[in-house]
Design a protein that fits this description.
The chain is mainly α. Helix content is 62%, strand content 5%. It has six helices and three strands. Helix 1 runs antiparallel to helix 2. The chain is globular, with a radius of gyration of 22 Å.
Amino acid sequence: MRVCGGGRAFRSVYAVGSSPVLADQDACRHSEDEEEVEVEPPVVRGKTDTSWPVVVLGLSFHLVFLGFNTVQGFMTTVAAEWGFISLCLVYASLAVGSFVAPVAVRRVGTRRALYLAASAFLTYILAVSFVITPYTLIPASLVLGIAAAVIWTANGVRFPLLLPARDGAGMTYGL
């Protein structure tokens, strides 16, 4: 049997004769048995429950988009013409920024990318809350669109890393 336990990718055990062979042969210990053995997940920061970082990430997204959606509704009612132009620029730059966001997240790192993108959302909220002029609105909209691409890309990279590797992990993605 093979008992693999070092990294996140090797938490399960495969019998050599009946299951697929793992890609990394050096990360496993070998023995003569052919029975399957479960490997316990590691303890994270003294806790066995690893859902806390997922909850923090979800609450952070909730707060960021609570503020943005409020301002978005505000923009389309109070400053109708400039609000419409601003939101068009946000979503157009989000579409263009989606092509460069993976490179930016890889260079900066997921955690830092999340912080920087959330601060860009805060900058947009502050820019349109106090003074609605084209000189503040257009640059803030362009930066926000690129930041939105970065925040969603960083979330897509960070979220699976926060989850424990186990059977039925797809259930967590649906929640």
